[in-house]
Write a structure and sequence with these properties.
- By secondary structure, this protein is of the alpha/beta class.
- It is 24% helix and 18% strand.
- It contains 21 helices and 32 strands.
- Helix 4 (167-173) crosses helix 13 (421-434) and helix 5 packs antiparallel against helix 13.
């Protein structure tokens, strides 16, 4: 249907009764006292203290408001409640919309057509069309869906799309016009695949770089987000107009996460910001006023809290401030099941969040009971009818402005726009501008006709792209998943060949002919929220440092290209390098790195470094907040630092005292590369219940038990062979209890590689604490001698008796029969559609 040019304005009834427009009569409701506010004196915002902003008048023009009013007059109560519920495509089917009048769907980080993260763009379009077609068949008002997706550094969910540098790199570029153009390109690629709405821009101001989402912030100082919020919003949406909806190729944006998600104590994801309202405004209000002024159509509330009160339930933040001085006229969406974290609430029921100002629940897998309970709460009066109408009006207003009531989708299916030459060129420009030169002792730029050795992870586009790339955590990707991309190695090889030189790739840095220079690419492996939280900023892998030292000892000048989602303590690596470049997470256009590192045949720069640090670089690995302007500020490289070819400076020998003891414990890695990662260790339990440490070649008890020995897997002695005999027993990994609640809510999984060496003669159980699942059928289906990988969802084990909040044994195998199996690489992993919940 198309938006009518005019509409009849009607007066809404008060909250004393609910209106069933289809029956044109008032429906009495039983009044229920809403849940008491959870706001405390320490979390009661004072609107008078906040600066002023306002959504553009074009968001609430008379024609739009009249259309929405007329539409709402024809909506049933069920249809109105449906508008406030958003389901994930992994937990809803198009036919469900014929029964449930939901207003929105999303594709979460690991959700995809047919649970195939590498599904083609055409499959994504077909999925979008299937949901739209189902929604169009519904009787009544026939309101279109709004379909959201996390396109946070380009359309990062789609194979073949352009992947731009993550925000931390874009912040180093200090280029608002670049941000606007990236927003335009991202919007177009999203629209091509049928989605209408992205959950961005992210306006977090990370204050503790140990936070696993640091790379989603532009800078530690709000000045950068303030300069970027408006241009990114305008890039995604274009300017709002009273006369027509968003132009073709534009999509709705959602500024997130409101508020102070980057200010949590200890950098803990979904944690607590402990601070004053003045600090909340000064640092964490960030670019929200600028995004609102630019017309952002939605805002996502944060998981986090302020002085112990979750933002999703703080009406003084979501309503008094956001709808008061900030003048926001769009709608507020919650984060993934965030409402379930409020006191007295669950994922399936939370009137408190709605009454506080959440207009749309992101209820990925809990949407059905949440819809039913919200409907009942409106009927009972626990949620006032006026509050429901307010939320529905805001959502419908955004849908009108997005153009969802127009059937035409002029760019959908234009797959040539995905990873187009123009978008790739833009991403390459962004990479060039994001690089920060920390050290250069005369080795850069490299002569294009030189003999260049390239080592490390230079040919891994997945590592260069980081988290939120095809999969939520960004893991499991290969270069084949980026058909329109080019690795850093590919870019260097191309640049050197064009200049008459010779480039050789050697991951371990070995060579037969001595090179003129070596480029070593290394850094963090991909991660996303909470999996990326760390205890210190020490870059722990020793392999890159050993490679650098070996090359240096051979008299070869070395250039380090460091890939990371945050500044890290890398003093030993910097000392071992003649040049050190912070490349952040550059994405799919690795040639942008070569554009700056590799000069012409005479050694003159083709492009200079222009990036400067938007995050202070640490002098020690402690990881405590290190932000410009704070008392005692003493970084290794200060905020705004960045060398150029035109303005160089020598960096002396840096201290290699990290300031911390040995690395702390691991929350997500248990048995990796043949060793049990501290604090975890192997424990064996015999059939009779006796416990023994899992020492190598430990023998089984005479009355039956289990033995363990080191053996080869993917590498030398990287695995453990477990032999159960004479009544069996249990092998488990143990330590002091840890809380995996967030990981469970995020649908993480226990993963391990295994090889059946002798088939079991009885049931085999995977255990986590007191929880267990029967994996006998999976073990039986595995050919003897063949390596396989098993992922079991944490939520599955939670539902089978595991205490997820106090896990002292995150993995175990138990059987009462003879069985031999070899296991390796035991860890928490992202559910990329491949995690299971075995039935018993």
């Amino acid at each position: 249907m198309r938006m009518a040019a005019t509409a009849l304005v009607i007066t809404l009834m008060s909250s004393a009764c609910a209106i069933d427009p289809g029956m044109a009569r008032a429906v009495p409701v039983q009044a229920v006292t809403p849940q008491a506010s959870i706001v405390t004196e320490a979390t009661r915002a004072q609107p008078a203290l906040w600066p002023r902003a306002a959504s553009p008048a074009a968001m609430t023009d008379a024609t739009t408001e009249a259309f929405v009013t007329d539409l709402m007059s024809r909506m049933t109560l069920e249809e109105k409640v449906g508008q406030t519920i958003q389901a994930d495509i992994g937990s809803i089917k198009p036919e469900d919309l014929l029964t449930y009048p939901l207003g929105s769907i999303l594709a979460g980080g690991n959700s995809s057509p047919g649970s195939d993260e590498r599904a083609s763009a055409q499959k994504w379009v077909e999925l979008a069309r299937a949901f739209r077609a189902a929604a169009a068949q519904r009787p009544g008002a026939r309101i279109p869906l709004i379909y959201g997706i996390d396109a946070v550094h380009g359309h990062n969910n789609i194979v073949g799309a352009t992947i731009f540098p993550h925000n931390i790199g874009l912040g180093a570029a200090r280029d608002p016009d670049l941000i606007r153009r990236i927003g335009e390109a991202t919007a177009l690629e999203v629209a091509v695949t049928g989605a209408d709405w992205t959950f961005g821009p992210t306006l977090a101001v990370p204050q503790d770089d140990r936070w696993g989402r640091t790379y989603e912030g532009y800078a530690e100082n709000p000045e950068v987000a303030k300069s970027y919020a408006g241009p990114m919003t305008l890039g995604l949406q274009g300017a709002l107009s009273a006369d027509h909806p968003l132009a073709a190729g534009h999509i709705a944006g959602s500024a997130k996460h409101f508020l102070a998600d980057g200010g949590t104590t200890g950098g803990k994801d979904q944690g607590d910001f402990a601070g004053s309202e003045q600090e909340l405004i000064r640092t964490h209000l960030s670019g929200y006023p600028q995004a609102i002024d630019a017309g952002v159509l939605s805002i996502m509330a944060s998981f986090s809290s302020w002085n112990g009160v979750k933002h999703s339930g703080n009406e003084t933040i979501l309503t008094d401030v956001l709808r008061g001085p900030l003048g926001f006229a769009g709608f507020v969406v919650s984060d993934w099941n965030a409402h379930g974290q409020l006191p007295g609430c669950s994922n399936e029921s939370c009137a408190l969040a709605f009454n506080a100002g959440i207009d749309m629940f992101m209820a990925p897998d809990s949407w059905k009971p949440l819809y039913q309970n919200t409907l009942a709460q409106v009927k009972s009066g626990e949620i006032p009818m006026a509050r429901l109408d307010e939320a529905v009006r805001r959502i419908l207003r955004a849908k009108v402005k997005t153009g969802l009531f127009n059937e035409a989708r002029p760019v959908e299916g234009h797959y040539n726009e995905l990873g187009s030459p123009a978008h790739r060129a833009l991403a390459r420009e962004a990479v060039r501008k994001s690089l920060v030169l920390l050290k250069n002792d005369g080795v850069l730029p490299i002569r294009a006709n030189a003999r260049v050795l390239v080592a490390g992870h230079a040919d891994d586009i997945g590592q260069a792209s980081g988290g939120w790339t095809l999969t939520w955590q960004g893991t499991g990707n290969s270069n084949a998943d980026f058909p329109n991309g080019q690795s850093i190695w590919g870019g260097i090889k191309e640049a050197v060949a064009a200049g008459g030189g010779q480039a050789t790739l050697s991951a371990d840095g070995a060579f037969t002919q001595k090179p003129d220079v070596a480029i070593v690419v290394f850094g963090e492996t991909p991660y996303a929220e909470f999996q990326g939280d760390v205890d210190t900023l020490d870059f722990e892998p020793t392999g890159p440092l050993e490679t650098l030292k070996r090359l240096k000892a051979a008299g070869i000048p070395t250039v380090s290209v460091f890939l990371s989602g945050r500044p890290m303590w890398t003093n030993p690596e910097i000392n071992a390098s003649d040049a050190f470049v912070a490349a952040w997470l550059p994405g799919t256009e690795g040639a942008g790195v070569a554009d700056v590192l590799v000069g012409d045949a005479a050694g003159k720069p083709r492009n200079d470094f222009t990036g400067t640090l938007s995050f202070s670089w640490p002098k020690t690995a402690k990881g405590e907040p290190l932000n410009v302007g704070q008392p005692g500020y003493d970084p290794q490289f200060a905020y705004g630092y960045g060398l150029t070819y035109a303005r160089n400076a020598r960096v002396g020998l840096l201290s290699e005292d990290s300031g911390v003891a040995n690395a702390g414990g691991s929350l997500d890695r248990y048995f990796v590369d043949g060793r049990f990662v501290a604090p975890w260790s192997l424990m064996l339990r015999d059939a009779g219940g006796d416990f023994r440490l899992g020492a190598e070649k430990s023998g089984a008890s005479p009355r039956g038990g289990v033995s363990a020995r080191a053996t080869d897997g993917a590498g030398q002695e990287s695995a453990r062979a477990l032999i159960f005999s004479q009544g069996g027993g249990q092998a488990m990994i143990v330590a002091q209890p840890v809380d995996l609640t967030r990981q469970s809510n995020g649908e993480m999984a226990i993963a391990f590689r295994y090889r059946v060496d002798a088939r079991p003669k009885g049931p085999v159980f995977l255990t986590l604490g007191a929880g267990s699942v029967d994996i006998s059928s999976l073990i039986a289906a595995a050919p003897v001698g063949e390596w396989r990988t098993l992922k079991v969802r944490l939520s599955c084990l939670r539902d089978r008796g595991a205490d997820i909040a106090a896990v002292d044994q995150p993995w175990g195998l138990r059987t009462n029969a003879d069985f031999a199996v070899t296991v390796e690489d035991i860890r928490l992993a992202s559910n990329e559609g491949d995690a299971v919940c075995p039935t018993q």
